[in-house]
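Appendix B. One record, verbatim.
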Amino acid sequence: MGLVWGSSFLFMKVALGGVSFGQVAWSRTVLGGIALGLIVLVTRPRVPGADGVPGPVLPREPIVWVHFLVVSITTCVVPYLSFAWAEQYVSSSLASIYNATTPIMTALMATLVFRVERLGASRWFGVGVGILGVLVVIAPWQIAGLTGSLAGQLACLLATLCYGFTFGYQRKFLSQRPIAPATFAFLSIGVSAVVMLALTPFIALSPIELDWPIVGSLLALGILGTGLAYIWNINVLRAWGPTGTSTVTYVTPVVGVALGMLLLGERLSWHEPVGAVLVLVGILFAQGRLKLGRRAGETSAAPASAAR
């Protein structure tokens, strides 16, 4: 997921060469919804309920659809519009770096707002090391060459705040429901596609100039980065919990900077690979694969699957 979502920032930057920011967000959402809809139509995934009987392909409870409306707005509509708008003013590399603030937003939402996780010292340490790695990649001592537009940066942070909210919200209200991952992803993206279609007159009717790189970027962004990647995301969320899942975004600045260097001619400085190593170490701690030493009698954080 880190590779796919890291490349999404490059695809957005390329696509903005011929379409508006609203059309970028509109296209990726609608294409992702179509791709996931076809998968659900062909596979018709079902998950057994408490009685062991497979449930319907789509949920029937109205409250579930309300939850998915909230999720669609906070995981797709607002973040996609925010990032696409921001990349008019900041580089794709900087946007991908800001995306790595998602874990800290998620930790705050999951622990303080939704209370669906309790993080022990090791996992908090991992979040901190990961954020330190991101700061090393950003290189604040060279910030004058990276800042770009303040409004663009704030738009990136708005997007990651929405992502953090979504991880906690899904964990609290939806992750324990018997909904297949493909269906879950389809509803998240599909409902957001309906919202985007309703917004078409306001965001998607400006003139366009298409060429093969722009078309290819929109297709990759929609089908792969917005469609298939969300099935993976739901599976990982259920296995790792919200904070563990969001640490995937630590990888995105590494991918984003590498693609910027290779395809956009950006220069790779010494601090970026150093930051990448710190990011990987942070992921290992945040996922519980590495642990700090504990004093006798100290208990570890409750596993995400048990935190309700």
